[in-house]
Amino acid sequence: MTAKRATRFARAKINLTLHVTGLRDDGYHLLDSLVCFAGVGDEIIVTEADELSLIVNGPLSAGVPTDGLNLVLKAAQLFGGDAGARIELTKHLPNAAGIGGGSADAAATLLALAELWGADLPENVVQLGADVPVCLAPSALRMRGVGEKLDSVPALPPLWAVLVNPRVSLETPPVFNALAVKENPPMGDIPNWANATEFALWCAAQRNDLQAPAISLAPVIQEVLTALEPSLLARMSGSGATCFGLCESHSAAEQLAAHVRKDHPDWWIVATTLK
Question: How much is the pTM?
Answer without folding.
Answer: 0.95
